[in-house]
Amino acid sequence: MIINHPLLGPRDAQEFTYLGDASLIDRPDWQAEDAQQQFYEYTYLRENPAGEHRELWFHEAGDRSWLVVTRNTLTHEISNVEMASDVARARGRSK
Amino acid sequence: MSYSGFRVIKEALRGHTGWKPAWRNPEPQSSYDYIVIGAGGHGLATAYYLAKEYGKKRIAVLEKGWLGGGNVGRNTTIIRSNYMLDGNEPFYEFSMKKWEGLEQELNYNAMVSQRGILNLIHSDPQRDAFVRRGNAMMLNGADAELLSVEQIRARYPFLNFNDARFPIKGGLAQHRGGTVRHDAVAWGYARAADRLGVDIIQNCEVTGFRIENGVCKGVETSRGYIGGNKIASCVAGSSSRLMSKAGMRLPIESTVLQAFVTEGLKPVLPGVITFGAGHFYCSQSDKGGLVFGGDPDGYNTYAQRGNLPTVEDVCESGMALIPAIGRARMLRMWGGVMDMSMDGSPIIDKTDIDGLYFNGGWCYGGFKATPASGMCYAHLLATDTPHEYAKAYRFDRFRRGYVIDEKGMGAQPNLH
Fold this sequence. Notes:
heterodimer, A: alpha+beta, Folate-binding fold, four-stranded antiparallel β-sheet, two-stranded antiparallel sheet, 18% helix, B: alpha/beta, FAD/NAD(P)-binding domain, eight-stranded mixed β-sheet
């Protein structure tokens, strides 16, 4: 697979390590009433869809940035690559 | 029709005109007491033990393709019970004992070959860990033996003993481990279940569940609605896909694991060996091909094929352990989709929906578990209580913090 890095252009997927579903960006609020339930779901439960999947890849052998890659789990086709920091900021986070 | 040596001779004399199909191909009935989804090894074993051990009737196994066409036909055929943790080891040893009597019980030649499995040791800390695991195995009634380099050299003289980085310092052997003809396991269970009246319905894909007031009443399929009292999902690899139709999210990610086989060679590898410094395991099939595999590809996928970086990685590990393997040509490679669970251990449990049961999360260790998984799942379906050996395989272990994590990797499925 080739991942089209927003800053560095097309890079071999071998340079990256894979973490999992991009929902991991949205860490629950530890002070919420149901924080325990939220953290259980955040840590363990996954959509694991057959089809389009937004997921986190880390450019370990490159610029060490985190990317949000939208990839089809049936065909391995990558349709979108974003900087994870941009995705987080767009959701109102500071970084 | 029972199979026997006498039968083979009789048929040989009659020009093999008397063989009958090994199982029926029935039309689905409108309802069943038990519906098992997935005619793989585990699903067929579940149906067989439901009928045989628990005396249940009106059982169907639904399969979207042909029986045995998923991971039971795609694995590297290894059986072993060399686990360490309390939740796992008794279960896998139970499975090993079931393998030992399987062919007689099913009247089917599954080519169970207890040729032994050897986990190689490459460092002193690894020896400590393996000694500990061997002791845990023996405490649970399994066999384990720590082998010296000389003992290993006598059996496997061609290994790379003096590698500068990963010298072989010993090994943990389980002599009762070995290999089984994987397809024959599916076929043997299918035939035995069919003879007990189980309807195995192929080309019948489950497209949805009919759930009313929190009770599962039946399944929508490509061949119409089928009602059922107890619906049992058994589709490891596609568990998340199927259970999403019931609105469930699982502690599972799907990953592809590749396997490889070389051209046929003369007998060279008497048992199963695993590399302790990378991830590589290898055995020789009865046809002569070296069957081997390594790490899964490590990203979510439902494609039954992997990518080349993993091929390179597995072959590098193979070359590091058995330099001679470089002279063999790779004949075939293929991929199977794994349910990778959050702690690397399986789930056999009820769901929050009445009448809907779940068996999955086998990671890449499902094949060796086939008989025990079928037995424990049948027990759960028949009695609504977990089987003695599957008590730890509950959904709520994640919420409660009682994960069964053999490798201590944490909630990162692609590392298990």
